[in-house]
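Re: the request from the purification team.
They wanted to know what the chain is likely to look like in 3D before they choose a buffer screen. I agreed to run a prediction and write the result into the notebook, where they can find it.
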Amino acid sequence: MQARRDVQGHARLIESAIHGHAVDREIGQEVRHSWSRCIGSYALDPLQSKKPIIVERGDLQARRERSGALLPIARVEMLGLSRQMQHSQYGIMLTDRDGVILCYTGDPGFSDIARRSGFREGAIWSERELGTNGMGTCLQMQRSVIIHRSEHFLVQNTGLTCTAAPIFDMQGNVIAALDISGSSNEPQMHTLALVEIAALNIENRTLLEAARANYILRFHPFPEFVSTPGEGVLVFDDTGIVVGANRASLELLGYRDHKSLCGEHIDVVLDTTLAQLITLSMRPSLRPEPIAAHLGHLRLFAVVQAPAPDTQSSTRLAVTPFMLGTPEVMDSRDPTMAANYHIARRVMNRDISILLLGETGTGKGHFAKEIHKASARADQPLVSVNCAAIPEQLIESELFGYKPGAFTGAARQGNIGRILQANGGTLFLDEIGDMPLSLQARVLTVLEDREVMPLGGTKPVPVDIRIISATHCDLVEMIARGQFRDDLYYRLNGITLTMPALRQRQDLRDMVHQLIRSEAGDRPLRIDEALIDRLVRCPWPGNVRQLRNVLRNILALSENDQLTPDDFDERWLHGGLVAPRITPSPTQPLTQAAVNADADFVISENDDALGDAEREALQRTLESCHWNVSEAAIKLHVSRKTMYRKMHRHGLVRQASDVRRGDPGLPDHEAAGSGRYGDAFLISAGPGHTTS
């Protein structure tokens, strides 16, 4: 009964307020006007129960794509906001101009309220649909608002406190709203300040990205404030016409709005000429230079950025690899990946080395390729070197090259080497943690001096490369153990990006959908959401690589175009086979296909026969090579790392008499069983037993 009286009281409050009658609480004019629109223009009933309309998935994706650089930039800011809002129950949302939520992140403690309220991606929170609310009213009024509890029009939302700020493009059009919603008992003025700062950062960064085809003037009365959130930004074309500006520039230059500024010639706006500004843009220094404005005797300090070279290509690359590319690096709702995309774009054309960290199969190699494709070096070679796959005795000649006759067995014409192959482009050092310590000093010299000395050579060769490296190892721990040089680590670690494991990604459901579509090609498919739910719950120790392989199995073995949970076989998660198994002959050498069959997955205990055959073949090959792991790996056409993994999996043990004459490239502490694999080599698991 009390709840019913409260509901009726909310309706009477709205009716009294819009008719100008006295009410028992302070209701601002902005809220009163919004309530009037809800009744007079939208014909809404404050007592009705109204769920948000959810747009179709395709429509949501199209809206995200139309947002361009806005969405990845906003995701980085939202991640920063979430860190500042720790220990608070909240949801952070970005909407487009129509009030459709493009991105949501929030505190887990707020998830139940968010679900009941309808805070989810794709939901329409415009004022027309859901009455007075933070996001919708902010977009309608084009200014920051706090809508606190009973200020909401619909009674169902009166338990919320919503704080929102608008985001504008360079012509002054509202394009988005940033909102923090919670269930606070009091309006949160500090939350409003946080939202406004974040919205301004998003707005300015998006403007700079969108304006790359034009000249960009960044200015402020104090030089130290240029390139900060308070700077003014003017965008003008090569004829000197102002085509865009940020809000700070209006205030600094004394203009009323964007319409009065855009379309003016730059020499009308500033007391300088177009030629002088273009000359400023050609200076290599980014130190702000003094210029004059017409407003009184105001002196400004400014830097001018010239149009980006080949802007059409640059714009395409900036959007395609990091937003519309392959599923591993698609536009991501995962905050960590969104931050990775944003940082990669900022540093990809600078002389800053990039170190990618993450588990095997998380897409480090693919991400490196996309960085190269999006950079100014895209038309130059990308050369990948897997430091774990090249035998230790060959890696030096592979990297640095050699002159004819440099050593016995050298090719007659010599070898240019991978580093010189990458000259002008990008060198990707994959599994850098597996590089032998003896070679790390030479690699460091190349990075420092930018020149290479081939084996057998007498004169160093200059080289121009940018370095991307990747590893699944803890390099800091390896430095402590003396297995990795700290000076090389600091040279490679210009910026570090961590690729999250698949089980940690918040966009896993989207990734599954995208990968299925990618693998299916033109094949028409209907996907049961129950299958997606099952796949999302899997731990995926092999990450994207394992997920892709399982999806390929599903598509290959499904007999119709409706994919359901019945098409999924649990054994695929453990490397199990569904086809009839054919056990190889014990006298037959292990084939490359058998060795390479998804080395990152363990063999199911249901496949004992196949496991026994592989174990016997591995042991036979190792014994024939006197337990020299590198030699056995070459004979089987696999990497040394794969050999170690399979030895560990099958519990293969070197006898004490074999350790001394074993792999000369294996450090003593690993030969003794205290290295990467701990005591694994000293424990016999028995034939066919899986130890992984």
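For the purification team: The radius of gyration is 31 Å.
Please add any questions underneath this entry.
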